[in-house]
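User: Study the shape:
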Amino acid sequence: MIVDALTPRDLPRCAELEAQLFAGDSPWPLAGFVGELAAGYNHYFALRAEPGAPVSGYAGISVLGPAGGHECEVHTIAVVPEARGTGGGRALLNALLQVADRHRAPVFLEVRTDNTVAISLYESTGFAVAGVRRNYYQPSGADAYTMVRPAAAEVNRP
């Protein structure tokens, strides 16, 4: 598995995967991916079996705020079921955290409260639960934890 930059040609596959993986919670349409990738403050990555292979996962993070006061927000991390358990999710998360580390920024994200695998992954990289957002995911009404990871200087990651 490799992680590289998500490109415009990857976006139809991302929208297809999004519809499968997040069918119950308002999946992003192709236009959403196009807008996200075009925004200069966003960084998106692809997970592939090998260079040039179709996307088997994707992740994105934004860098917000003024220089010296940046904060980062994870927008999404998704991995196809057949690639789960192979370290792909961790590899994508590490790519996102490298972006935040370059900016010495804390990182925020939301995760379904019932997604114990993702929560464990996030906790293993320095995230902690900061609060709960009731009915965050729509239309399912699932709750989300807001999690935060302090700026890299304050975290000891493996």
Remarks:
- The radius of gyration is 15 Å.
- Residues 88-102 form the longest helix (15 residues).
- DSSP finds four helices and seven strands in the chain.
- The chain has one domain: 2-154.
